[in-house]
Amino acid sequence: MTTSLTRADGSGAMFDRIAKRYDLLNRLMSFGLDRGWRRQLIADLPAEGHVLDLATGTADVALSIARTHPNARITGLDPSVGMLDVGRDKIRRAGVSERVSLVEGDAESLPFPDGQFAGITVAFGIRNVPDRPKALREMVRVSAPGAPIAILELSEPRGSLLAPLARFHVHHAVPFLGWLLSGAREYRYLQSSIAAFPPAEEFAAWMSDAGLEEVQITRLTLGTAHLYVGRAP
Questions:
Q1: Cα 182 vs. chain centroid, distance in angstroms?
Q2: Mind giving me the DSSP string for 73-137?
Q3: Any idea where the domains of the chain sit in the sequence?
Q4: Under CATH, to which class is 7-156+193-231 assigned?
Q5: What is the pTM of this model?
Q6: What distance in Å separates the CA atoms of residue 88 and residue 40, rounded to the nearest whole number?
Q7: S-S: 53 plus which of 62, 120, 196, 215, CB 3.0-4.6 Å?
Q8: What is the secondary structure of 25-79 as a DSSP string?
Q9: In what order do the strands lie in the sheet with 225-231?
Q10: Distance CA 136, CA 117 (A)
């Protein structure tokens, strides 16, 4: 199983081209399930402190944290300038600019000092990172001792009677709907990137190898997504 994808496939430039329709497409293509998944993603975060949201995109997760954790400060990082522009507008309209900031950056080389964050989240972004083990080590480096690191990612549905239907949705319906609504053929990338992502147990092992402790896996909605949670040593 390959551990990386080329930057051309999941690059910031690719997401720049679909930034303005990204939120709508997520809602439609996941039948709204992504909102519930994101609530589970942030459930283990501390009530206060500085939280990092990697692959923040249009800041959906960062804004969710701001709403549910009123004493937390959030930094969102993403390589796509276009997505960040959409996110900054949403943050301004939500009136939380004093607590939520967005920066352009690379998960493999985080521009932060050691031990800065009380928690880290990543939603639907780790599969776009070419060197995922390196990104995991960077997350551990910038986390305070005991900080939760929660990663939500799509996966190939397996092991249930409805798995073939779910796989058809991922492999055919999602790319077509993305192309139809956004005019961007880049959504074909979603199919291949999910297929290339390692099985849940293998990815959890990468987290442990990076130094994370108490790593747990939660299977979501017929296995169409998994939530991985570990703690920094």
A1: 21
A2: EEEEEES-HHHHHHHHHHHHHHT-TTTEEEEE-BTTB-SS-TT-BSEEEEES-GGG-SSHHHHHH
A3: 7-156+193-231
A4: alpha beta
A5: 0.85
A6: 24
A7: 62
A8: HHHHHTTTHHHHHHHHHTTTS-SEEEEEEET-TTTHHHHHHHHH-TEEEEEEEES
A9: 100-104, 71-78, 48-54, 119-123, 148-154, 225-231, 213-220
A10: 14
- Residue 191 burial by Cβ neighbours in a 10 Å radius (0-12, 13-18, 19+): middle
Determine the residue type at 180: L
Torsion sign, CA atoms 83, 84, 85, 90: positive
pLDDT at 196: 81
d(CA 82, CA 94): 19
151 closest CA partner among 44, 13, 27? 44
What residues form DSSP beta bridges with 73?
A: 50
pLDDT tens string 138-193:
999 999 999 999 999 988 766 665 567 666 666 666 666 666 655 555 556 666 77
Token pair 């283990």: residue: 44
Q: Tell me: the pLDDT tens digits for 27-62?
A: 666 666 788 999 999 999 999 999 999 999 999 999
Give me 25's structure tokens: 């497409």
